[in-house]
Write a structure and sequence with these properties.
This protein is about 70% helix and about 0% strand. It is mainly alpha-helical and about 140 residues long.
């Protein structure tokens, strides 16, 4: 299976998983949240591998890197540099994914008088929409090149 097809499969899985998430902080729900995030990360990994295959003569190998590090290395490609860079901003896709994952796996500190905001449908829908927009933009640019 090609990286592009595998990436699409992970996105389809994430959409299906999102339908089953209630955001009720139950064990099953937390597992589904992590599964959703994992599917997005795996899709990003497949996309990075696909882009690497196109530009591999111009880059160092990314095979041993995690998905986030792969994208940091792919920022060296002038054609997609600005698109990828913006996803590492505070409100970018990579930051949203990291924040969401930390909210699922962290244990709330009862000694702190601040709110431990949990994930919600709006945030996960935003992640999915940001990813789809990012993915579509990259594919359009790569098809033009």
């Amino acid at each position: 299976m090609e990286y592009k097809e595998l990436s699409n499969l992970y996105i389809d899985l994430s959409e299906e998983i999102l339908k089953d998430i209630n955001f009720d902080s139950s064990s099953k729900d937390n597992q589904n949240q992590l599964l959703f995030i994992s599917c997005i990360e795996n899709s990003l990994d497949c996309d990075a591998n696909h882009i690497y295959e196109i530009f591999k003569n111009d880059l160092e190998s990314i095979e041993e890197l995690n998905f986030k590090s792969k994208w940091k290395r792919l920022m060296g490609i002038r054609t997609i540099e600005n698109i990828v860079y913006s996803e590492f901003d505070e409100d970018g896709l990579m930051s949203l994914l990291q924040d969401s994952k930390m909210r699922v796996i962290s244990v709330p500190d009862q000694n702190i008088i601040s709110s431990n905001k949990s994930n919600d449908l709006k945030k996960f829908s935003l992640i999915l929409n940001k990813y789809k927009t990012f993915n579509e933009l990259l594919r359009k640019i790569l098809d033009e090149c």
